[in-house]
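Next comes this protein:
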Amino acid sequence: MAINTLPPSDPTSASSVAAESPERTIEFSDNRLLIELCGEYDRNLAQLEQLLSVQINRRGNILAILGEARDRAAEVLQGLYERLEQGKEVEAGDIDAAVRLGKPTDGTAAGTGVRDGDQIEMFKGGTLEIGTRKKTVEPRTKAQQDYVRALYENELAFGIGPAGTGKTYIAVAVAVNQMMSGHVDKIILSRPAVEAGERLGFLPGDMKDKVDPYMQPLYDALNDFLPGKQLAKLIEEKTIEIAPLAFMRGRTLSNAYVVLDEAQNATSMQMKMFLTRLGQGSRMVITGDRTQVDLPRGVSSGLSDAERILKDVSGISFNYFTAKDVVRHHMVAKIIEAYDKEAPVG
């Protein structure tokens, strides 16, 4: 692939002329990959045009970009094309993340891929990858990369931050990866079944029917990483267990990858109970969001207590995320930032 701009009239001032040029062009050598890059009915280009307020015109195997953010758009397109060259897909979420988290064009040191001291360049070689049966998961921000390293290096790790930052998703991906590679024999996923606006007893069905809605995000993550029939078989054989936190009492969890999600809704006693279930050959991950506590007023969060009590214990890692690490829809990051600015009530 070659990147071209309109030729400058004065070769001695090429950089300044390129910066003032109303058009930036990119030439792609593989037309098949270019079709994938553009998407069906050029929907990927349309998405990028909307996100960066640019105009992209296709001329054979050349894309011409007009607008103030043309250089940024060119870098995003180049990165997405390199992703396709690596045999990976380009989806709407990848385009959105590339725009928000990719290498900036605002004077940041070239090649660092760092913006605001907090992001990493996407789609370049050397990034961490987590292999599962159905897909490969790539941490997209520096905080996520640090988190992945912590999950592989520590027997007990905490991931703390707002919704949409990949805390649980990455933890479940690592759990599947570790089970596939034979490092653990089973996966145990748990959540506190805290009543947030709707009492458990009022829900229809037996206990499993009442509890499963609370566990659905864990099922959703697993479905992303394992084929449906294989997942159903593993759950039936109890190689993968998904259960409320209360069901962990009295157990010793050995040779397992254990994930506790929504840990901010565990009480201090529940958190201590859960942490002390850790058995030989096991690894444990605790994830939570301190801003979404659903416990009754006056009941302290076990996540906050664990943070305070265990912060100096060796072998335990604490990884923190902010709105800058959100990898869902770009509006999620804006919503979180808006709520963070709002003064606490009461």
